[in-house]
Amino acid sequence: MKSTLITWKDKWNYKLQISNPENRGITRRLQKLIKNPTQDIYGVQDLKKTEKEIVLINLLLDEYNKVLKWLNCKSLNIPIANIHIISEYEYNRKIRIRNGNKNSAGNYSYGHCYLTRGDKKFLNISAHELAHITGLITIDSVITKTILHASLRIGISRRVGNYCWQYNGLNEALTEVIGQEIVSRALKTRRVPSIYLTDEINVTAYPAHVCILKHLIKRAISPSCSLESIKKALVRSYITGNDKYLKCIIPNERVAIAMKLMGTDSYAALATAHILGNRKLITRIEKI
C-alpha cells in the first residue's frame, strides 16, 4: 500500500481532519484505523491512582474546561486513564533516558500525560503537562500497514524541516503561564488535597522564559489592549494554532525572529533578552 499523508488536528475529542483533498477517498478500513490513534507510546506500568490523585486531576481538568468555555472552545474529553502516574524508576527508565532529558519532571504525548508519584511539585507539573494536552496538536501521519506519527505543531511551536522547531521557548513559557493560572484557580476552590500544598507550589518551570513572556505582555498593555484581552488572545492562539493572536505581544520583525529562535534552555532565554535590549530584563534573568 502506498503511503498516505494526512494531517490530524486534535482536540482530544478524536475528530480527524484530512488536509489533502486527494485523500478524501480514504477507505473505511483506514478511517477506522486512524479514528483514535492515541496510545501510550512508552508502555508504562501505571500505579493505581489514589483518591487524592483522582480528586486533583479531576479538579484541574474541570478548571481547564472553564477556561475553554470562557474562550467558546470545546471542552476536553480526556479519559482519566490517559493520565499516567508512575514510579520515579519507571519514569527514568522509560521516559527520561529514552528522550535524553535528565531534567524532565513530567511528559505528554498524543493525549497522554505522564507524572511521577511523590514529586513535591506534583500540582504544578500536573497543571503544566495538562496544559500541553489542551494546546493544538497537529500531526503528520503516514499510513502504510501501520501509522507513523510526526508532530508538526505543539501549542504555538512548529517544526521546520526534520529537526528544527520555532517558538519552542515561547511555547513552554506560555504553557507554564497557563498552568500557573489553572493552579491559582484550583487553589481558590479550596479543594486541592493538602498533601499537594508544599513549599514548592510557587516554583516556576522555565523561569527565564516566563520572565520574557511577562515582559512582552506588560509592554503590550495599553488603553486599547487590556491585560485580560492579551491573556485571552494568547490562550486562544495556543489552543487554535492561529498565529494572528500572537501579534498582540510581538510588535515587530526583530521580536518575531527572537521569539522564533528562542530555545528551551536558560542560555537561549538570556540571549533573547539581550536581543530585546532591555537591561532590567537581562538583569532579572541573570539572577535566576
UniProtKB/TrEMBL annotation:
Q: Which domain of life is it from?
A: Bacteria
Please report the name of this protein according to its UniProt entry.
Uncharacterized protein
Organism from which the protein derives: Candidatus Komeilibacteria bacterium CG_4_10_14_0_8_um_filter_37_78
